[in-house]
């Protein structure tokens, strides 16, 4: 990435773009290189302005955020994407994660966390506002969902046991419950959890859950 983090903004409300511009211009590490009011304009601009980060609403005219993510996934464009949306439907969240989004912020709390989100995503991490994290994790508990038997869709060096534990973590089983389910000790569960975090290059349970979502290990 360039010395400054280059940012493109996309939302169909000019007043929201103006508000983000005002916030981001106060940070010397950021450079806003463009903005778009609809998805069609966005696809054209993002191909040429070499933005590092795209901050994008889902609900836009001409092309919505889902269509934009699908198009970007078919190109060599390397920008990382933060979704900024008033929608927090879990199916929508899971869909954009599968399509490669690196962060998801609720518009209600964006003012408090947008700078942290940009810095985290620019550093190669994922970022989700607290309410979105809670949505993701809670969606896997208490709903009768069973772990999928689908194969992992990317190459990893995970063992069969680690895949079992990954699925159960994503379903919000506690360490004790995983041990009982698989007839192994709590210490063994925690060892596998640490190995998963290291192998998947994630920081926490949310990272494990995102991997499970993207690789179809959980039935939707």
Automatic annotation (TrEMBL):
The keyword Lipoprotein does not apply. GO terms for biological process: phosphorelay signal transduction system; regulation of DNA-templated transcription. Residues 151-216 form the HTH luxR-type domain. Residues 6-122 form the Response regulatory domain. The lineage of its organism: Bacteria, Pseudomonadati, Bacteroidota, Flavobacteriia, Flavobacteriales. Signal peptide: none annotated. It comes from the Bacteria. GO terms for molecular function: DNA binding. Keywords: DNA-binding, Phosphoprotein, Transcription, Transcription regulation. The modification 4-aspartylphosphate is found at residue 57. InterPro entries: CheY-like_superfamily, NreC/VraR/RcsB-like_REC, Sig_transdc_resp-reg_C-effctor, Sig_transdc_resp-reg_receiver, Tscrpt_reg_LuxR_C, WalR-like. This is Response regulator transcription factor. Pfam families: GerE (PF00196), Response_reg (PF00072). PROSITE patterns: HTH_LUXR_2, RESPONSE_REGULATORY.
């Amino acid at each position: 990435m360039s010395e400054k983090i280059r940012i493109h903004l996309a939302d169909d409300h000019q007043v929201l773009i103006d508000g983000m511009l005002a916030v981001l211009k106060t940070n010397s590490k950021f450079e806003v290189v463009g903005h778009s009011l609809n998805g069609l304009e966005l696809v054209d601009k993002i191909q040429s302005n070499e933005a590092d980060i795209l901050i994008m609403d889902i609900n836009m005219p001409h092309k919505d955020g889902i269509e934009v993510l699908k198009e970007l996934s078919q190109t060599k464009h390397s920008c990382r994407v933060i979704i900024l949306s008033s929608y927090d439907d879990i199916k929508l969240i899971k869909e954009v994660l599968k399509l490669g989004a690196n962060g998801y912020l609720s518009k209600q709390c964006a003012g408090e966390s947008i700078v942290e989100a940009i810095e985290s995503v620019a550093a190669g991490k994922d970022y989700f506002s607290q309410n979105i994290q809670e949505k993701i994790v809670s969606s896997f508990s208490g709903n009768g969902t069973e772990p999928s038997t689908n194969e992992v869709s990317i190459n990893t060096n995970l063992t069969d046991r680690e895949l079992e534990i990954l699925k159960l973590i994503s379903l919000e089983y506690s360490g004790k419950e995983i041990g009982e389910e698989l007839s192994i000790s709590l210490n063994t569960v925690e060892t596998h959890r640490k190995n998963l975090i290291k192998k998947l290059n994630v920081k926490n349970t949310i990272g494990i859950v995102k991997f499970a979502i993207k690789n179809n290990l959980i039935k939707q």
